[in-house]
Amino acid sequence: MEIKRDSYLQALIDRMHNGMVKIVTGIRRSGKSYLLFQLFKKYLKGIGIQDDHLIEIALDQRKNRQYRNPDTIQDYIESRLVDDGRYYILLDEVQMLEDFAEVLNSLLPIGNIDLYVTGSNSKFLSKDVMTEFRGRGDEIHIYPLSFHEFMQVYDGDIYHGWADYVAYGGLPLVATMKTETQKIRYLTNLFSEVYLKDIIERNRIAKTQELEDLINILASAIGSFTNPVRIEATYKTVLHSSLSVNTIRQYIDYLENAFIISSAHRYDVKGRKYIGTPLKYYFEDVGLRNAQLGFRQVEETHIMENIIYNELRSRGFSVDVGVVEARKKLPDGKYERKQLEIDFVANLGSRRYYLQSAFSMPDAAKQAQEKASLIKVNDAFKKIVLVKDVMHVTRDEYGITTMSVYDFLLNGNSLDW
What we know:
- This protein is an alpha/beta fold.
- The chain contains 16 helices and 13 strands.
- It has helices at residues 6-14, 32-46, 70-80, 100-107, 122-125, 147-153, 158-168, 172-176, 180-203, 208-220, 228-237, 245-257, 286-292, 300-314, 364-375, 405-410, and strands at residues 21-25, 54-58, 87-92, 113-118, 137-141, 261-268, 273-283, 318-329, 335-348, 351-359, 382-387, 394-395, 401-404.
- The strands form two sheets. Strands 7-6-8-9-10-11-13-12 form an eight-stranded mixed β-sheet. A five-stranded parallel β-sheet has the order 2-3-4-1-5, sandwiched between helices.
- A hairpin with a 4-residue loop joins strand 6 and strand 7 (273-283).
- 37% of the residues are buried.
């Protein structure tokens, strides 16, 4: 069964022959190897690239362990270059290669090679690895399956598909599993035995329980503002544990560097400036988030917000939380200033969209509440409210679009409807 990942495949195609190392990053089991060794290789063969001009090495396989030596792999690759034709080098799990950055940088000056790599552990996933390529690394970050990609392989309607996606997320292998027990066991073991161990080992974390507690706090707080100071208070009052603010900041950085979570900053829409803490944190895969909490807090409203955030990021947008100031007249005639929140301000080049995740707007009062912040934005960029209800796309007198989250997720051009 082939899962199409067209946007990522096109990203690789667009970067062909650009003189850089194409680096496919993402959390483990998100489909990096499949993208490179199945979909991209199929594309290369489809445009006429012959097998002798494809050099592919899966460095995690025992039969290829000799190529983990930098001199051995460099000699091998150079021995395969027997003419002036273009050669495509595909390396999987490149973090298993000793001095991998040095080897890749040494190969780049060879004019007739095009180099693509993936890596999986926390060392390779760390953001600072890009500096090792001296500006010659071009990152393609792959996310778990979007809802649209998930529905390609889901055997059922979109409503049951949505329920599964909300609970178990979009890791490709999970999407092909048949039973609830399989999915729960796989996600639970994957989080504890792979992701956590990677982070703990790389960063030499001694307080492993405190790290797990932090992940639980962040998982419980998706869709809510928080910061290290508030989290420190939670450690003291709820967990009866002490962890310094600086250590909490470090642990959050570790989780972000490993792509377990990502942050959305507050942005003053009218003042056109970032405000600072507190922030919102979202999980790269909601199934992993739910697994960490033992599938006990699957609140659909907050998870829908997380899914929308991930969708916007996977489409290439930078995403902030918008804040607009409003004045409310009090009974005594005085005015009160209050800040209204816009769930997401999505930017990509000159494009901007304001989005509100409303889940449901059953009456006029709820509609007014959800749209209040959008109405206060005095610019011409598109404003959208997303609801879980099945409905036709509508626009009101303020120019605010309301659409179903299903339409938004299943259609790549939905923001421009």
